[in-house]
Specification:
Helix content is 69%, strand content 0%. The chain has 291 residues and is mainly α.
């Protein structure tokens, strides 16, 4: 079902169902008191998001790649009050609403004809209801996870739209979302590969369309260089969070299996049986890249 075929009433009904799916599972979390890292996140936002603190943020090896989370936290605090004991409810509510926004973005990805709104709605509903990722939603210090997801999927939606209908606006939105994703978390560096995957799935695979991907790849490589260039001062390069010695392949295979079991395995078997090899390979490649 394409965007032009989706009635406004069905869009509103879908949005209402997704809103309920996003909010209801997290109602018990909203009144929880702050935890230790919540104080740290809010304190860093106060320190760095100011005229005096921005130069320090730009030089910080870790938090310059999480800058959007600090800005978001500071804006929420400015809207709710300076006392964390009274504003923590608003911080948690803001996380839930950002989670809902991500679900709506997944639904909006149905504008891409290869996906369609029926599939995107089912994906959005599952994403919102399966609360295994509750840490990113209710933990103030993990809001960068919600933000990198939001900007990444916005980048991919805009990119798919540009490949289909052109328009400078879509390309500018792709670039803006890509940059904001990089300033949200390091995992955004994988976006050029996901953009290339979408390019391979489009019917019009003109090589001129690879120029934005090449520019994004150069940006991601420069970004990665600056991350690892600060390895002596980078907290996560010294505490074991990021490690080239980690059992990456085993973890990838085990996590992919857990991700697909059981219904993904059934879907993969059906696609294989119906000789739909291309979407099956695309799904596996997208899962591996995202992980």
């Amino acid at each position: 079902m394409t965007a032009s075929m989706l009635p406004r009433g069905r869009i509103l009904l879908a949005a209402a169902l997704l809103a309920a799916a996003a909010v209801v599972p997290y109602i018990p979390f909203l009144p929880l008191p702050p935890i230790s890292d919540d104080y740290m996140q809010i304190g860093l936002a106060r320190e760095f998001v100011s005229m005096e603190g921005l130069p320090q943020l730009a030089a910080h090896p870790l938090y310059r790649t999480r800058a959007t989370s600090l800005v978001f936290t500071r804006l929420v605090e400015a809207a709710s009050g300076e006392e964390i004991a009274t504003s923590i409810f608003v911080h948690r509510l803001a996380g839930v609403l950002l989670h809902l926004a991500n679900g709506l973005l997944i639904f909006a990805a149905g504008v891409w004809p290869r996906l369609g709104y029926r599939r995107s709605f089912a994906a959005a509903l599952a994403f919102l209801l399966l609360a295994d990722h509750q840490e990113a939603v209710v933990w103030v210090a993990a809001v960068h996870e919600l933000l990198v997801f939001a900007f990444s999927i916005l980048c991919l939606i805009a990119w798919a739209q540009w490949l289909r209908v052109r328009g400078t606006g879509w390309l500018l939105l792709t670039a803006l979302a890509f940059v904001l994703a990089l300033y949200s978390k390091e995992s955004a560096a994988v976006l050029p590969a996901l953009m290339a995957l979408i390019w391979t799935l489009e019917a019009d695979r003109r090589y001129a369309n690879l120029l934005p991907i090449a520019l994004a790849l150069l940006g991601a490589l420069a970004y990665t260089y600056f991350v690892f260039g600060a390895s002596r001062e980078h907290q996560h390069l010294n505490d074991g969070t990021f490690s080239l010695a980690a059992p990456f392949l085993q973890t990838l295979l085990r996590t992919t299996w857990r991700l697909f079991w059981p219904w993904g395995v059934v879907a993969a078997a059906l696609l294989y049986r119906q000789r739909h090899a291309r979407p099956l390979l695309a799904a596996l490649a997208c899962s591996a890249l995202a992980l």
